[in-house]
Structure formats: C-alpha cells, structure tokens
C-alpha cells in the first residue's frame, strides 16, 4: 500500500499561497479609482461601517492596539500633533486620547463622514478634531504633524504609493508613522473579503515605504504568540527621512 509523503514546507507554502489567492477579494481591480472609492465610502457609511467598532472588539484588534500603546511598543507620549488617517470608529483615536500628552493635538480623518460621526459619539471627548478627507489628498500643509497613525486603511488602495507619499508630505522630517496593514495570509485574505480590500506582502510594502522616504524603523507584534503564528498583520513604525524629495501633487485618475 502506497504511503502518503508528508507535505514539505515549500509545498505547504504553495498550497497556502494558492488558497490565499483564491479567497482574496479581487473586486477592486475591475473598477476605476473613483468608482472603487465610492464603493468604499458606501460600505463604511452603511450597516457594515456601523458594525466596525463591534467587529474590532470581537476580533480583539482594538484592545491589542491599546496594549501596544500601553506597553509603549509605540510610545505616543513623544508627540505634539498626531493625525489618525482612516480613523473609522475611533479605534486608534480612543487610545491616543488616553496615551498621549493632554496638550497633544489629535486629528482624525476619514473618507466616510458617517464613520467620523460614529467616532465622535463613541469617544465622547472634546480632544480630537475630525476632518473628512481622502488620504491621497489630505487637506493639510506640508510638515504639519510629528506623528501619523494609520490602521487598516491602505488596504483600500490599489497602489499604496500615492497615499504613502501624501503621508510623507504632511509629516515633519524625523516624524513617525505607526502603520498597520492586513498581511497576505489566508486570514488576511478572509478579512479582505469582508472589507472589500486587498492584502500586503510584508517585503513589498517595506520596499514601497523605502521608495517614498518612509523607511521602517521597527516591525512590531501585538504579542509573542502573534509573532510566532504570523497573526495580527503588518505593524510597523516608520520614520520620515530628514531630506525627502516631495513628489509632484498627485492627480487622481477617474
Ligand atoms: C477598517 S477601517 C479602520 C478603522 C481604524 N483605523 C482601525 O484601526 O480600526 C478603514 C477606514 O478607512 C477609511 N478609508 C478607506 N479608504 C480611505 C481613503 N482613501 N481615505 C481616507 N479614509 C479611508 C474607511 O472609511 C474606514 O473608516
């Protein structure tokens, strides 16, 4: 009787890659940037957006991000003016309210005005200001912030570079960015289906951040378990280099 050979690590990797490709949301590819952006706005304005805060609690994302601030894996007490991009229901902003110097200025921005209304109600704090904006066209002057946080948002871009360049523009030289993104794992692909977005390959995202002048300083993990099982997604602290040649203003294609 033929015995079945155990799967080699490279076979396992191939099988997982194939499964991930099968599962991952592909709907954004057939759409123009504007059409896709409208879809994203509708998604978050609607009932799914209303469930976002609850989903972040159930998936433990929100408390785990809180742990990162509490344990100072990302020390937010250093900053004076922080922009939270794609603030959603205020999952990161809420931690910033608690873990920053009370005089630090906090701004939450999001494509969805409705999400920002939810964030304002949920946080019930007079500290953050809220601005409705697309992250590829931020209504802020160059070098405005010493910190940017952006959690699970750049997944909504076909190509993250126009967004990352805009982050570089509004960030002061030497300023920090906390970036969290869905990774190209099977779990990430399932998430991409729920939220109609893409996933990122860690190496590719690293090199795109380098390319725009936001080199990674440190890769972070919620817990040792997350690191071991490659769960939780890509979490990094990046810093804007002192001398970055700004790209010409980005013109969005429709
Ligand atoms: C998954 S939620 C993340 C919420 C929160 N940052 C967190 O850490 O859980 C993604 C948010 O990004 C916003 N978003 C998506 N595309 C955007 C864009 N191009 N510009 C600004 N915000 C965007 C959505 O409206 C939504 O509120």
TrEMBL record:
Keywords linked to the UniProt accession: Methyltransferase, Transferase
Residues making up the signal peptide according to the UniProt record: none
Enzyme Commission designation: 2.1.1.163
Protein name: Demethylmenaquinone methyltransferase
Gene3D superfamilies cross-referenced by the UniProt entry: Vaccinia Virus protein VP39
UniProt enzyme class: transferase
SUPFAM superfamilies documented for this protein: S-adenosyl-L-methionine-dependent methyltransferases
Regions annotated as coiled coil: none
Upper taxonomic lineage: Bacteria, Pseudomonadati, Planctomycetota, Planctomycetia, Planctomycetales
């Amino acid at each position: 009787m033929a015995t079945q050979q155990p799967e080699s690590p490279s076979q396992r990797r191939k099988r997982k890659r194939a499964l991930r490709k099968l599962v991952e949301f592909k709907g954004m590819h057939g759409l123009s940037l504007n059409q896709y952006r409208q879809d994203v706005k509708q998604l978050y304005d609607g009932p799914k957006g209303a469930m976002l805060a609850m989903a972040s609690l159930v998936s433990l994302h929100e408390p785990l991000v809180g742990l990162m601030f509490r344990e100072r894996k990302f020390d937010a007490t250093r900053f004076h003016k922080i922009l939270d991009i794609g603030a959603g229901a205020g999952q990161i902003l809420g931690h910033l309210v608690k873990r920053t110097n009370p005089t630090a200025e906090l701004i939450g921005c999001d494509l969805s005005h409705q999400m920002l209304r939810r964030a304002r109600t949920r946080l019930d704090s007079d500290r953050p200001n809220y601005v409705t904006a697309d992250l590829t066209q931020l209504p802020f002057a160059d070098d405005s912030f010493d910190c940017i946080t952006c959690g699970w948002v750049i997944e909504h871009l076909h190509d993250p570079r126009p967004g990352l360049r805009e982050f570089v523009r509004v960030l002061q030289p030497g300023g920090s960015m906390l970036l969290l993104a869905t990774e190209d794992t099977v779990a990430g692909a399932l998430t991409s289906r729920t939220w109609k977005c893409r996933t990122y390959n860690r190496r590719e995202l690293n090199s795109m951040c380098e390319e725009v002048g936001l080199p990674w300083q440190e890769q972070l993990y919620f817990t040792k378990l997350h690191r071991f099982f490659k769960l939780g997604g890509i979490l990094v602290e990046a810093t804007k280099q002192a001398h970055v040649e700004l790209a010409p203003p980005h013109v969005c294609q429709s």
